[in-house]
Amino acid sequence: MDDQAPAPFVDASRASIARVYDYLLGGKDHLEVDRRAADAVRAVVPEVGQIARDNRAFLRRGVTYLVREAGIRQILDIGSGLPREDNVNEIARAIDPGVRIVYVDNDPVVLAHARALLAVDDQTAVVTADLRRPGELFDEVAAVGLLDLTAPFAALLCGVVHHLSDEDDPAGILAAVRERLSPGSHLLLSHFLDDGRSRAYKLEVAFLHGGLGSGRFRTWEELREYFRGLELVEPGLVYANDWRPDATTHVESPVRTLYAGGIGRKR
Ligand SMILES: C[S@@+](CC[C@H](N)C(=O)[O-])C[C@H]1O[C@@H](n2cnc3c(N)ncnc32)[C@H](O)[C@@H]1O
What we know:
Helices cover 37% and strands 15% of the residues.
């Protein structure tokens, strides 16, 4: 990481996915434009912040499974978001201090924030790259030299694929990601779910046209396609809160049918 790089230009007139998410999670890194975009979706579904918390909890349980039970020691977290108090490196290293992690996000603000956090950590790196160009993204990750992409690793796509539009061809992008998984690697994915009710449609309209400009709610069928050819880890692709819930999981979440998650393994 280049410590001498200047702070990124922040466009205060446009909402940022990373900052809107931070606001919904009760964080401190957001601007007025982000709060307006978040409030537009909250006006439609007041419990929308719970989707963000449910996602975060799914990520914690998923990473715990990957490191504790699946033996994963390398993690590629794509669309990693702003650092929080429960980062993937902390969750994984609480189980095995040797886990190596590369965070990737297309928002340079994430890199700027991560610098301070990672200044004393040579087992974690941050890369600015775009999931819409998976070939370049994997090349840049390989160039960092921290992960051995020929050995098993976990690719995390937690809360990011729903920010790809249909024109971006998310199924094609996922195929490109799966192709780059080495045998024994895992894919963790969580996504807004179209549960067939009008609430999902209204929420999608608010995400797309309320200031953020992205946030697609996709069907089970569309999400299953993202795991094509992978062996789904039990209990499969399910409502995120039903994925190996623990004592802290908000199983009665009022928004549980709006969010799905799963983990697949490449043979
Ligand atoms: C909702 S946050 C999720 C953060 C974290 N993965 C989690 O689950 O808590 C989505 C993140 O994906 C990033 N993102 C959106 N589109 C992206 C793309 N095309 N390439 C890389 N990152 C992207 C955003 O900048 C944001 O930080």
